[in-house]
Amino acid sequence: MAQRISNAFAKAAQEERPTFVAYTTAGFPSPSQTADILLELEKGGVDVVELGIPFSDPQADGPAIQEAHRVALSHGTDIGMCVALVSEARARGLQIPVLLMGYYNSFLHYGERRLAKNCAHAGVDGYIIGDLPPEEAVSFRALCAEFGQSYIPLITPSTSKARIKRLANIADSFIYVV
What we know:
The protein is of the alpha/beta class. It has helices at 2-14, 31-43, 63-74, 79-91, 104-110, 112-122, 138-146, 161-170, and strands spanning 21-25, 48-52, 98-102, 126-129, 150-152, 154-155, 176-177.
């Protein structure tokens, strides 16, 4: 599955264009529309999709994503449902990589091993976890490797060159620039 991510970036590079990565919140505007949205994003040319896991206090996100999380949570969207929605989209033909994007507390509460296993079965390719530094993600990164998924480290414009170099050494698909 991490291979699907690498293939998407390689395809865009071969076509001499940027990789088109899009974000949507699972369960917004309703859970029943999420698989359709994923399929339409693919049809529209998206190379990789970030599927946001609704969280009750998404402070690192702007007002639009905060509202999408609020609405998704009002529909009972939880991490298990998000995994099922990816599975549904895969069953309906979704081919592009799907990355779960969220806060570590949700992943920890669900259970790291259970998450990696269920996500592998559903067709999730990797994870972007804004509040889990790579240095603290050793066991989670090992689970990702075990189940063929990718843990995507984050950097910011102020990240030191030395840290970027360290993160480049552990990244198995790409580094997310905030």
